[in-house]
Design goal:
Elements: H1 2-17, H2 46-61
Length: 62
């Protein structure tokens, strides 16, 4: 009975020692984020200015 318990204990200890595989670990590539520059800082201002100029021209024509 002692030999059976000893064999079970040794086999349990040996199975955890060989867990895993022999392949090299896979490293993920780092994520590189590139910042983009806007073409113009005042690009969103032109449309309201044009609309305002058109409205002013219509009012002035009356």
């Amino acid at each position: 009975m002692k030999k059976l318990v000893l064999a079970a204990a040794l086999s349990a200890a040996a199975s955890t020692a060989f867990a895993g595989n022999m392949e090299a670990p896979v490293m993920e590539a780092p994520v590189i984020v590139e910042e983009t520059n806007a073409s113009s800082s005042a690009a969103g201002v032109w449309v309201p200015l044009v609309v305002l100029a058109i409205v002013a021209a219509v009012i002035a024509a009356d």
